[in-house]
Amino acid sequence: MSSLNSPAALSIVESSIPETPQRRHNRTTRIKGRRAGFWVYAGLGVVFIASLFPFYWSFLIGSGDSTTINDPDFSWWPAGNFLANAQTVVNDPAVNFWPALWNSIYSSALIAAAVVVTSTLAGWAFAKLRFPGSKPLLVFVVATMAVPMQLGVVPLYILFSDLGWTGQIGAIIIPAVTSAFGVFWMTQYLRQSVPDELIEAARVDGASMIRTFWTIGVVAARPAAAMLGLFTFVTAWNNFFWPFIVLDRSDPTLPVALSLLQSNHFVDYSIVLAGVLLSTIPLLLLFVVAGKQLVSGIMQGAVKG
Amino acid sequence: MTSTQTRPPAPAAPPHHAEPAARPVRVLGFRQHLSRWDLKFSPYLYISPFFIMFAVVGLFPIGYTAVISLMDWDLVRNSGEFIGLDQYVWILQNPQFWTALRNTFSIFLLSSVPQLIAAIFIAAMLDRNIRAKTFWRMSVLVPFVMAPVAVALIFSNMFGDVHGLVNGILTDLGLPAVPWHKDPFWSHVAIATMVNFRWTGYNTLILLAAMQAIPRDYYEAATVDGAGAFRQFLSITLPSLKATLIFVIITSTIGGLQIFDEPRMFDNTGEGGPAQQWLTITLFLYNIGWGEWNFGRAAALAWILFLIILVIGLINLAVTRALVRDEGARSPKAKKQKGVRA
């Protein structure tokens, strides 16, 4: 460490003597964080390419045919079969693409809506209302975040087969309508964004609890609720383990349908990867529209959490 | 919702409402009674949807898993016979369990350690004053929207033993091809790569948020004192990330030890490899529960997994605390709360 120090130890003295432009530039970078240099952009460029390469790769293979992958004159330029391959996926009776897409859309939307409602209500109570037992209950909620999904799957499966719900989309919605993370998140958010005086003022003016919640809590919670909803939607959409266990192959969600693409003995990767890309398009579109919110949601959750 | 009924009809407060001093002897009117009940019971009403649902789909299954794990479960009769701890004994004596445990840890370490290091460095780059911030931040998060199943299919193809992209490049470079689907270690590397691809960006953003909460004058002072960029990173950035690092490590432990999607999709049989090279605990659980339809054993394995996660989580917490403790003490806690906006 000290060897790193020694050349810079003179920097205070140096500031009084003329600097070369290069040196001045480095110093301002460090102090004010101004203008990142070439290497930062080069590094971020590498990350950018690594993030997008698998998407391009699946397009590349997905636009070829079954021989593309072992073609000796492999080309980095996509061939023209993507739509044909996508059509094969969509028309494959074993995959049930359209039902899977619809199931994914509405189950994820319902789960996201339910999580937002239950989390906002509970978050408001934990953040802003005083009641006996609130602290231990909140600790309990946080502790449940460590419980893995696997711990519940066997009884849930037994329960849903008793009810005759296996194969029903309800079987993947019901277990997902609460989220300990969601409650914790809304609690943290509301605690910081609503001043207690505002609630007291509303109470003094004679507003009931539900009215206070509706006019103050819900309004304040909107940005956090939107992010929680978005986040829950993505997680629900991508979920595989439980849907794979409980759903029928004939009425799946997209990830379950995708998993069937590879289950043949002979795997044609041009079809598989075309299907992968096809199933990812809805979330990519969502990302284009709401990616910015997703980014700031994750970052705010981190600072507040 | 039902408490709408308890709302006082007139929003205007009655005159004596503002005299709390008279409280002990006053006979309350109906309205005040309503208002009191409202105040007392509303909080429980608001948390009840969460807790009721959680009791049904969270607590009950956990307890019931423990019960089933002590049973020999009969799927036809849909009930079981108590056999004590035999299922646990069976699991712990099964060599496949120990292979699965080894694989799970190996994949977990190969994914979490490089991922965390990469995330810290990418976050440090994003923390610089760069142009098009939002664009770069979004670009690291793109992989997160892709389903793990989709990621696994793409990477299984790229890591193909014969015609895979990675082996193609290695052979072109004159290096030997790697047996991704034969050798346990290399299969773990391939699976860990899938996890890293999907999660590095997510953790990067969490760490970036924590970095932005570090007051800039710390760096200014360090620069005046003559500390170089690397030294500042070691002495200011890393210690300030302590709380966030603990959070990231613990969440990735909980998630990482449950890994299922990627190993399941790594080949077309989904059984964890012909010699259990990439059989993980959850994959083993699935094979027992829904391959052999032995729910008692699956439930016992679920509880074992839970206990492992708890133990590792606590060890994580202790180790991370010990490692970053002293340097972290320098920075006051308040600093974290001051959160600079993204």
From TrEMBL, chain A:
Which ranges carry the ABC transmembrane type-1 domain? 101-290
KW Transmembrane (keyword) present: yes
* Bilayer topology term: Multi-pass membrane protein
Gene Ontology annotations for the cellular component aspect, listed alphabetically = plasma membrane
Q: What is its main location?
A: membrane
Swiss-Prot/TrEMBL keywords: Cell membrane, Membrane, Transmembrane, Transmembrane helix, Transport
Q: GO terms for biological process?
A: transmembrane transport
Keyword set includes Transport:
yes
- According to the UniProt entry, the coiled-coil residues are none
Record's InterPro entries? MetI-like, MetI-like_sf
Task: Provide the protein name.
Answer: ABC transporter permease subunit
Q: Name one Pfam family in it.
A: BPD_transp_1
Location within or outside the cell: Cell membrane
Q: Which family does it belong to?
A: Belongs to the binding-protein-dependent transport system permease family.
- Where are its TM segments located? 36-57, 105-125, 137-159, 165-185, 213-237, 269-290
Extract the SUPFAM superfamilies matched here. Answer: MetI-like
TrEMBL record, chain B:
Coiled-coil spans in chain: none
**Domain ABC transmembrane type-1: where?**
101-316
Q: How does it sit in the membrane?
A: Multi-pass membrane protein
- Please, one GO biological process term? transmembrane transport
Gene3D superfamilies assigned = MetI-like (1.10.3720.10)
Q: Per the similarity annotation, which family is this?
A: Belongs to the binding-protein-dependent transport system permease family.
Task: Offer a single GO CC term for the protein.
Answer: plasma membrane
Signal peptide, first to last residue = none
| Protein origin, superkingdom | Bacteria
For this protein, the record's Pfam families field holds: BPD_transp_1
Q: Which UniProt keywords apply?
A: Cell membrane, Membrane, Transmembrane, Transmembrane helix, Transport
Where, subcellularly, is it found?
Answer: Cell membrane
InterPro entries, A to Z: ABC_transporter_permease, MetI-like, MetI-like_sf
Q: What is this protein called?
A: ABC transporter permease subunit
Does this UniProt record's set of keywords contain Cell membrane? yes
Q: Which parts of the chain span the membrane according to its record?
A: 44-67, 105-126, 138-159, 185-210, 241-260, 300-324
